[in-house]
Write the structure tokens for this entry.
Amino acid sequence: MTSGDNLAAVDLNEDDGLTAHRKSVRRKKAPVQEQAPSAGRDAFGWTSVVVAVALALALMSYDPTDPSFFTETSKHRADNLLGPVGAHLAAVLMQFLGLASYFFPILAAYLGIQAIRGKAFSDYFVKLLAGSTIWVALVVFAGGMSPFVVKDIPIHPGGTVGIDLYRFMTLYLNTVGTVIVLLGLIGLALLMATQLTLADIGNWMLNRLMAFGRSGGSLFLGLGQWLERRRKNRMRDSIIIRELEKMDQPPAESKETSSTNVKEPPPRRTVSVKPDPVPVADSPQLQPVLQSKTPSSPADVPVKERKRKETGQETFEFMDHMGGKWVYPSSHFFQAPKPEHKIDEQELKRKAKLLQEKFEEFGVTGNMEAIHPGPVVTTYEFRPDAGIKYSRIVNLQDDLCLALGAESIRIDRMPGRSSIGMEVPNSKREIITFREMIESKLFCDDRSKLLVAMGKTIEGDPYYSNLAKMPHLLIAGQTGSGKSVGINAMICSILMRAAPHEAKFILIDPKMVEMGIYADIPHLLTPVVTDPQEASNALKWAVAEMEDRYRTLASHNFRNLEQFNASVIQGKVQAEEGEDPLEPMPNIVVVIDELADLMMVARGEVEESIARIAQKSRAVGIHMILATQRPSVDIITGVIKSNLPSRLSYRVAQKNDSRIILDGNGAEKLLGRGDSLFLAPGTARLVRIHAPLLMESEILQMVKFLRQQGQPDYNHTVLKSEADDVMVGGISSSDDPMYDQAARLVVRSGQASVSYIQRKMRLGYNRAARLVDMMEADGIVGPNVGSKARDILVPADYFDEINR
């Protein structure tokens, strides 16, 4: 026999294991002898079928409002299909067994059919016993379900019998034990009914998996072969097309180009000359500017795709302080608030009574003065009697949680009162939306551009804070505490109130997943920073910008940025002769989503930059929002902490983390999901705030609207290190003999990547990167824009014109 025959034999032998077992059981089992026809057996069978149909009709037409043993109504006639008898019978069955009552018509029909077929009772006794076992298990399962309503009357799926059995079993076994026992009974009953063994079931499943594996393997093998053939066909077509294009090109052109590159190099000093068609900015880099009108209403905003142009990367010139219009986002981009939950006064009074009883149990006497319900927690105001220490009450937090079944209870002194507040979580938490925060009268009446929506207090009042007065904010919170949602609410608050010329952002996201949603909005000063070293460079740039702004303010005798901008707009201050005209300077907000990653990479540089900015940047409009999920002493150092008086803590893992961020306990007792404690500047009192919920889909709608109004005007010097600036500024085109050849290659090919120069000129990476930087300094190529290719800023015949 061949191997193929052996394989076929194996497949045939692996037919259906369960079917083979059933056949063997039937062969081993003694043949069932049909009993002789009997009038009595036929009568029993027929009567059982009739009873089954009657029971089924009575149960299906059951109406809980029909008059019965359990219901007294004004109805004189039952709506049941079997009349009053059916109504009483259905009421009894549904009251005691619920939906499990439908087992009885099925049982009666089964017994009747078996009797009519002439089967002896012993032949199907095992199956009948197995079915009854499964029925009992289902009755207990139904006893643990919630009741359903029929004509405003609740009906329990398991009836009173099911409820009592479920309560009895859970009393001794709990819910998990009850489920395990019931599932075990159902499995045992199925094994009895089918006369199968666990080994048979395991073999059957193994055979099915092996058969599925063989068929799936053949399918994937065929798909892989088809994809490979398709890939090779495409590769072959592309090679043929490329060779045909080479044949169509005249060889003289290639030869002339090659000889021009090598034998006739023009004077290298002329490379830095910029032709007239390319606009030149005052900075060392080329920044072509394309003016565009900003639409006056959202309906007029056209959706345009960003296109590359030969003159360089297109930027968007925003409105200045005198002219154009900026359309602020509407609050309709965000989800409308839901109706407030109705306060259950009885529930609040019940909890107050439990707290009072628990205090008396531990010998703490006093009076429950008032109850202050809030959106997330309810504050119970308790006035202790004379001689009761505050620390004694605070130590009872865990005991109070046990008495009320609460996740955590925070105890704190009531401001301005001689009483103590116990903040107990509500059973139903109210959802605080971002839209109700920005539609509040307090938010609309405030004119500050840096007002941020923090959330609601425990009393339900909206709470806002001005970033210009903080002037920096330190945030901590473990994963899942709502820290990222709170930061998004702060950023969106500023975007709702400030135009791009009024506020600029530097978003630093080392985790690369949180801030990417704000990419390419007009308010960005630089692309979202994900590299820790570039983040360190951005902080150094902020320090340099701070010093430059201070020099500007000092030269014109201004004390802060607000006074300077107002005077510039009103024309009260003018630039000196030979200097650029003065323009209002925007506020700059630096947001760092994870400070720990930066401290691990460049600890000394980051700590020094943050300390310098925190100490003196308030007057010049540079502010920081620093967040971390690891508030340890090696991340939040003493230098950083001492210069950041405004701190916000979401839920943290332990007391030590709370002490580091807030100088006290409490943050470890928060509820998560936006629950936080805020330490405002100039005060030692903690304010409990519940942050608003801000969905990603809502942010995307607002970001899309902002992108329609313009493109960001990036400042590419922000991410450059001082060493890069010295290298590029100190080199010239005469420092490298390969520069001229590389520049011609780039202009002719239209590709200005480092890897392209490496491959074509067989240079190392460092030298190729240096050549590209030299071309950027000479205005031949544009700046690096993330993963996009650099723009060629000169026409293709640029060197031909120079040679002439």
Remarks:
- Residues 17-196 form one domain.
- The CA atoms of residues 353 and 651 lie 29 Å apart.
